Amino acid sequence: FKFGSLPLPALGPANFEKSYCEPHRNFPVHSRSSFIDCYFRSKEHSVNCTAMADIRPNHTIYINNLNEKTKKDELKKALYAIFSQFGQIIDIMAFKTLRMRGQAHVIFKEISSATNALRAMQGFPFYDKPMRIQFAREDSDVIAKAKGTYVDRPKKHLLAKQAAGEKRKKPVPSRESKKARVDKPAQNRPAAPAVEKVNPPNKILFCTNLPEETTEQMLSLLFNPYPGLKDIRRIPNRPDIAFVEFESEGEATVARNALNNFKITPSQVMHVNYANK
């Protein structure tokens, strides 16, 4: 085997090194391949591939049953040393979180390299534990980006953590604060929004809250699109109000429904009601 620059004892038990690695260290490539085939046909390291049959070959192999006591950096270097013989490795991912401990992903540039690595290294005694290898269920992000098939995944765990944090931050009202709200004097409570009083319908509309610069021509532009416009009357010294008359009550209602609360300026809203009879 070609183990790179790492010392062999770091990759497995000493008895494996003596009984398998040393006698075959200088074998030609084809002999080493034959040795690998024979080695993994043995009963002790036979593999049931039925569980992997439904996962298509891809660039990434998933390895588990790794020694959980191995440091992350040491693990990645050792994995690179034993898997680089099968082809170019793009990345090795190993994590030390409780959920991902004892697992790793090795991403190859070529699918054929991943396939050969899976077949050859299945059950290999690595840090005193036989590796269990299968193809990853989907392409790694780096491969997906290279293929142009990458889709950003929602980070569910981050969203859940954020939601939990917000929930914790929200103060729980105490019994005293609830009682204080109940006993709060009416004058201190926020007033309910005033309900606009609508006069009985008629054919004359009463416009209020007009800007001082509003002219009759401006009002004409607003109301002219609505059928039946008859007259617009302004009140001397009251630029904020106007009366708009239509031919019929129905036509006045159409215009009122359309223009009530219309923003004449970005900060000023026109109110349109029926005039008092």
From TrEMBL:
All residue ranges annotated as the RRM domain in the record: 59-138, 203-277
One Pfam family per UniProt: RRM_1
Protein keywords: mRNA processing, mRNA splicing, Nucleus, Repeat, Ribonucleoprotein, RNA-binding, Spliceosome
Composition bias, Basic and acidic residues: 173-186
Domain of life: Eukaryota
Coarse class of the protein's main subcellular location: nucleus
InterPro entries (alphabetical): Nucleotide-bd_a/b_plait_sf, RBD_domain_sf, RRM_dom
GO molecular function, one term: RNA binding
Example GO BP: RNA splicing
Region described as Disordered: 157-195
Signal peptide: none
Record flagged with keyword Repeat: yes
Compartments reported by the entry: Nucleus
One GO CC term, this protein: small nuclear ribonucleoprotein complex
Presence of the UniProt keyword Iron in the record: no
Family: Belongs to the RRM U1 A/B'' family.
Entry protein name: U2 small nuclear ribonucleoprotein B
Top-level taxonomy: Eukaryota, Metazoa, Ecdysozoa, Nematoda, Chromadorea
Gene for this chain: Snrpb2
